[in-house]
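Hello forum,

I keep getting stuck at the same step: I have a sequence, I want structure tokens, and every attempt I make locally crashes halfway through. Rather than fight my setup again tonight, could one of you with a working pipeline run this one for me? It's a single chain of 280 residues.
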Amino acid sequence: MKRPSYRRFALFTTALTGVLVALGVYTAATGSGLACSQQWPLCDGGVLPQTVPSFIEWFHRLVAMITGFAIVGVVAAAWRGDQDRKTALFATAALVLLPLQISMGAITVTLNGAIPWGYSVPTHAAHLLFALTIFTMLTLSTLTAYRGHYERSLFDRARLAVGAALLLIPANFLVSRVSPLIDYGPPAQGAFALTALAAFAGLVAAAVWLPETSLARYRPGVFVAGAAMFLVTLLGRDLVVYTDEARLVNGLLYLVAFVATAVVAYAARGGSGEERHSLA
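Reply #2:
Ran it on my machine without issues. Output:
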């Protein structure tokens, strides 16, 4: 049986990491983070959970373990294979951050009340920041691994990435804390995380591909949109007191992200996928 290529393995691991982040957001939103009797890695005094909330937390840990092993595998495959050094370094950066991410998660569910920062906003913020950075590094490793293996030109892929982000940003807004249309409960929070990460990944892809196309001058706009979506993802969690001012800032960040992405999408509307500057 033929083994999957590094590119597919890296893509799978990146997607799995995104799902894990969304699952973690859902777990926290349901209040299940402390359901395992403040034990880690055990749960309810044993290996298996005893209640539904404990199962949610236990399942989150199971997916996290699988994802962790997948990241280790990606790094090993990157260095042992014929991957570009940059591809391997991005994957390695994700692995270096992984123990810190795991530690923050363990602290979050075990030290509530034991020390001032056990179950606190700074700990949650660090946990999420590490997760987003790991996701970004894996995304970059995947993108660089696919270089030279595209069926479409870089211009066409950049245009698709920007177009996808342009659709995902409003979708993310609809399930965000800013939107008045939904109850921002656990399902909405999970959907928020997934759509935010998907939009962010599209913008990262565009930032990687644009420099070698005729749209290179629009790369700063993609960076602005990506930074805005990064901050939106943080504000979508309970990391700040969500006052009217915070809601206004959140809404403005969405506007910045959408307008910046729309400008690039408009510039790309008439380009040719066979342009000379596009090096597939």
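Residues 276-280 have pLDDT under 50 and may be disordered. If your local run keeps crashing, start a new thread with the error log.
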